[in-house]
Write a structure and sequence with these properties.
44% helix; eight-stranded parallel sheet; alpha/beta; 15% strand
Length: 846
């Protein structure tokens, strides 16, 4: 198997086509990329901006160039010696009439040849939750009528521009007559004869008859655990792999599958041993991917969390927390907030999924002689507590039961629930037996279905509770609210980082290491900048106090409280600090307007995801308008008092963030794992959450910058501020990775100790394999060194600070790959020497 030395993620659609990507291949080659990593390329719904709403898994989307354009891109990649990795989506497809499989199911119901392709409960009619109100009200309003489908001419229930086909049996022999029906009562009777039921989108959380992706009713679960379904959905994917056009696969949301291990074993068998396979999988604290999965690792969310250990000042988090609590007037209780978010999801957003589990459990209960009758209320209470207490995305039970590591996790969760107030012991014991398969033979099949449904629910419930609720409610340190981050407080330390890297080398050395993705909450350089707030919580809190006073007239008094409330004000200033362009001047009206457009989209999403005073389903327009007006005030050219103070205060955070960004990049390119560069993040990535982070970068500018200076850029401040230095560090290090792939893939990870005045401000480690060695020395926690009022002189900055080398690394010649400077450090390296030309050292043994 060819393991990539570095991948480059490109988001197709939104203007990016195969031919445009082909034009970037020479640039990717110069940058040092080994594999282009493509977002989904298969045909998706019309106007799709992301491609995860696949309508035809066996066609390459004509909207981005079709098969011919794809072939041209593959040819361009091969001409430069680059490979291709595809993002595939086995868990779901678009529940859209554009999807001919789904359309066939809508028209023919259980008689469709695709009825078992989708994860549908056929004990009832297929629910189609795409109406603005109930069917009865929409019909009464005249919004539904009988018309001929413009594409087929057959009778259909027309709802605006959507035509839901009628089942042939419901109009057989009377097509013309049916098309003349206008009476609401007759239309309603005809609707009742269909294998589907049109209903309001608001009823989906409680009444949906098919498994969906998270809360998105437009994405229907696919049953790839069925061999025939696997074959139908993977025909083109496997053809491209077998033809040598695709070298690797990235599996989207593997935890949504009924049997992830079984799926991956089938995929590995069909794709062959040489295909590089990774999975999108969020790991909990201390969790590892199952050792028996035949893959190279995850897509790297856990890597982002690990890097925060190196760049967050954990010693000052309590100070930051106190400042946040003083301003909001409430103590932070993350356990309580997490529980509240999970209960909200279980009781509302996923009420239908919970109800399905409850119904299965109650059907099993009569077969269990060991049980006295349990009330439905008791079982529901136990089920809710079990779901809420789950600390990871899921366990990996199969038809036979749950494997040992899953049983161990389940035992911990059960113990936690039983130690809580009013534990539902009997009901918990009953659910435990269902989950582990300790039931009567007559209930074995139902228990297996329960187990699968339970495991497919815990992941979405965790994701929506943490990433898309809690992380938009709790704003103390936005940089820590990232995909893959722990929702509960933890310690941050360099020792933890080193330990995590050693584990990464042992457990998944070939996994992707990302720092920005299309799903991260903010770009990597915005996050790196916001890490610096943990170093100077007092300066940040003082700034927020001043800005709130300056902008106090923009706060609106509403019946349900001020808008924005203090916690949201804190969030707005911190989010703005992360996204503020380095070159934006306070009087640049056009620049402020461009930032405002991006920022307002983020603010609306943040407010709705929090689900406190507004949400997606029931927007509080008055509240949202008030907060958005406040945000506009911040970016108005007339707000010079605020803008001047804000940018002056932000300056040292920007500088410290730039250093963090370089250190973060160096770590990603030298620590265990395959570095993944998200499109444009080889420059500065100050993006906000999607859709902002899916904007196409300025590729022309990036190409010019790399071409202008093939050697490492200077370390003048402009080189940092523009992102040129970061881009050239990437290009320089990726060339080294290509020249010594084994060193960075399998070489030991050796933490190096620092001593002296600035020991706490250094991260140092080495990669060593046989005679090869590479030493990394980089700065961390440098805010005070860069703040005008606190900084020592340059000559004093790293004085009396040294890196101690173990015997196997000492007494050798090293060349700094950035400057060409050669050194024989004996048993230690003086940081002042190492940082003489630029504040990091990348030393390759000669």
């Amino acid at each position: 198997m060819m393991i990539p030395t570095a991948t480059y993620r490109i988001q197709f659609r939104n203007g990016m086509t195969f031919d445009r990507a082909s034009g970037l291949v020479p640039y990717l080659k110069r940058l040092g990329i080994s594999h282009l990593y493509a977002s989904p390329i298969f045909t998706a719904t019309t106007g799709s901006t992301h491609g995860y709403d696949v309508t035809d898994a066996n066609e390459i989307d004509p909207a981005i160039g079709g098969r011919d354009g794809f072939e041209r891109m593959v040819k361009a990649l091969k001409a430069e010696g680059l490979g291709l990795i595809l993002d595939i989506v086995p868990n779901h497809m678009a529940a859209s009439l554009e999807n001919h499989w789904w359309r066939d199911v809508v028209e023919n119901g259980e008689n469709s040849r695709y009825a078992r392709h989708f994860d549908i409960d056929w004990t009832r009619r297929l629910t189609l939750p795409f109406l603005g109100d109930t069917f009865e009200k929409v019909l009464e309003a005249g919004e539904i009528s009988l018309k001929g489908d413009p594409k087929t001419g057959k009778p259909a229930l027309a709802y605006y521009d959507t035509f839901y086909p009628l089942a042939p049996a419901s109009y057989a022999g009377r097509e013309t007559e049916v098309l003349k029906i206008t009476d609401c009562t007759t239309i309603a009777r005809l609707h009742d004869q269909q294998p589907y039921r049109l209903m309001s989108w608001r009823d989906a959380p409680r009444e949906l008859s098919y498994r969906r992706f998270f809360e998105i009713t437009g994405l229907a679960g696919v049953r790839v655990e069925d061999g025939a379904v696997f074959d139908d959905t993977h025909r083109l994917i496997l053809e491209l792999v077998h033809d040598g056009k695709v070298d690797g696969l990235r599996v989207d949301h593997v935890d949504g599958l009924a049997d992830p291990k079984g799926y991956l074993e089938r995929l590995r068998h069909e794709a062959g041993p040489d295909c590089y396979i990774t999975v999108e999988k969020i790991l909990g604290e201390g969790e590892q991917i199952p050792a028996d999965w035949p893959i190279s690792g995850t897509t790297g969310y856990e890597f982002i969390a690990a890097v925060s250990d190196a760049l967050v000042d954990g010693r000052k988090l309590d100070e930051l927390r106190s400042a946040y609590e003083r301003m909001t007037g409430q103590p932070i209780d993350m356990k309580a907030e997490l529980r509240a978010a999970k209960l909200l999801m279980a009781d509302n957003n996923f009420a239908g999924e919970v109800s399905t589990l409850l119904n299965i459990a109650m059907q099993i209960q009569p077969t269990e002689d060991r049980e006295s009758a349990l009330s439905e209320a008791a079982v529901k209470s136990a089920l809710r507590e079990l779901l809420v207490a789950f600390p990871v995305y899921r366990t990996y039970g199969t038809w036979e039961g749950i494997p040992p590591e899953g049983r161990e996790m389940l035992a911990k969760v059960l113990a936690k629930v039983r130690n809580g107030p009013n534990p539902p012991d009997d009901a918990l014991a009953f659910l435990e037996r269902i989950l582990i398969g300790d039931v009567e033979q007559a209930a074995a099949s139902s228990a297996s279905i329960f187990r699968t449904r339970f495991q497919q629910l815990t992941g979405p419930l965790m994701a929506k509770s943490v990433e898309d609720t809690l992380f938009f409610r709790q704003h103390m340190a936005l940089a820590l609210n990232e995909v893959g981050a722990e929702p509960l407080p933890r310690r941050f330390s360099l020792d933890r980082f080193h330990a995590e890297m050693q584990t990464r080398l042992e457990r998944q050395p070939d996994a992707l290491s990302g720092t920005s993705t299309h799903d991260t909450k903010r770009g990597e350089d915005a996050r790196a900048r916001l890490y610096a707030i943990t170093e100077a919580p007092d300066l940040w809190a003082d700034g927020v106090d001043r800005w709130r006073r300056i902008n106090s007239q923009a706060v609106r008094a509403l019946d349900d409280g001020p808008a924005p409330e203090p916690a949201v004000e804190w969030m707005l200033y911190q989010a703005l600090a992360g996204a503020w362009p380095n070159d934006l001047h306070t009087e640049d009206a056009a620049g402020l307007k461009a930032l405002e457009t991006r920022f307002l989209g983020y603010v609306e999403k943040a407010l709705r995801e929090a689900k406190l005073r507004t949400n997606w389903g029931d927007p509080n327009e008055t509240y949202e308008k008030a907060v958005l007006e406040y945000a506009r005030t911040l970016l108005s050219p007339s707000s010079q008092a605020f803008l001047t103070d804000f940018t002056d205060t932000l300056r040292p955070f920007i500088r410290a963030g730039l250093v963090n960004g370089i250190t973060q990049t160096i770590i990603k390119l030298t620590a265990p794992g395959v570095p993944d560069i998200y499109q444009g993040s080889e420059g500065l990535d100050l993006s906000l959450v999607d859709p902002d982070n899916r904007r196409e970068p300025d590729f022309d500018r990036l190409q010019r910058r790399l071409t202008e200076k093939e050697k490492l850029a200077s370390t003048e401040e402009d080189e940092w501020q523009t992102g040129r230095l970061k881009q050239h560090v990437i290009a320089t290090l990726l060339r080294v990775r290509q020249e010594a792939p084994t060193l960075f893939r399998r070489g030991e990870y050796l933490p190096l100790g620092a001593s002296g005045k600035r020991a706490d401000n250094i991260i140092a480690f080495a990669r060593a394999d046989m005679d090869d060695a590479f030493i990394v020395i980089a700065p961390r926690l440098v805010f005070s060194a860069l703040h005008a009022g606190l900084a020592p002189s340059r000559s004093e900055r790293w004085a009396e600070t040294e890196i101690t080398l173990p015997e196997r690394l000492g007494h050798r010649r090293y060349r700094d790959i950035c400057t060409g400077k050669v050194v024989d450090p004996k048993d230690r390296i003086a940081v002042n020497w190492a940082f003489g030309d630029h504040p990091f050292a990348l030393l390759l043994a000669e």
